[in-house]
Amino acid sequence: MNKNRSTMQFGFGVGPDVSWMRKELTDLGVQELQTPEEVDEAMKQYNKGTMLMAINSVCGCAAGNARPGLAIALERADNKPDHLVTVFAGQDKEATQRAREYFSDYPPSSPSFAFLVDGEIKAMIPRHRIEGRTKEEVAQDLLTVFGAFVKKEGE
Q1: Model confidence over 120-153: pLDDT tens digits?
Q2: Nearest of 66, 77, 85 to residue 138 by alpha carbon
Q3: Which CATH number does 19-142 carry?
Q4: Residue ranges of the domains in the chain?
Q5: What would the pLDDT profile of 8-59 be if each residue is shown by its tens digit?
Q6: Beta strand pairing status for 83-88 and 50-56?
C-alpha cells in the first residue's frame, strides 16, 4: 500500500493531497503536531508563556478565513505568541483528539484557535467565529486575543 499522502488514490485509504493546507501554516512558522505524543510534549515544553494552537481543517472556511486570517494577524501583530502549534482535524485524528483534551470545556470545533497562557486555556475562537466571516475579521479576533494576553518586551 502506498503511504505517500500526496498521491490521490480513492478507495485505498489515502485521500486528496492536503500538504498545501499544512504548508500554509508551517510556512508561517507554526509547528505541526501529528501524534498524541507530540501534543503532550508541546504542552509540557511550552507550559510557560503564550501558545496559539490552530486546529486546521480541510474545509473552505479554513482555506478562506482561518489560515489566511492567522497569516494576516501574525504579519500585523506587535506582540506574537511565544509558541505557534497546529493539529489537523480529520487528518491527524489522534493528535487532534489529544489536543482537544487540553481544552475539553469547549466543544470540538474545526477550524478553530485555542490560546493558552502558562498551559491554561484563556481564549477560544471556534468555527462559528470563522465560518461566514472574512479573513480580516478572523485576523482581528486573533489580534484582540494577542493584545489581551501577549506581553510586550520588558513587561
Answers
A1: 999 999 999 999 999 999 999 999 999 999 987 6
A2: 66
A3: 3.40.30.10
A4: 19-142
A5: 444 445 567 888 889 999 999 999 999 999 999 999 999 999 999 999 999 8
A6: parallel
pLDDT tier at 154, thresholds 50, 70, 90: low
Kindly list the catalytic residues: 59, 61
d(CA 13, CA 90): 13
Cell of 22: 499544512
First to last CA, the chain: 54
Strand-pair partners of 88: 56
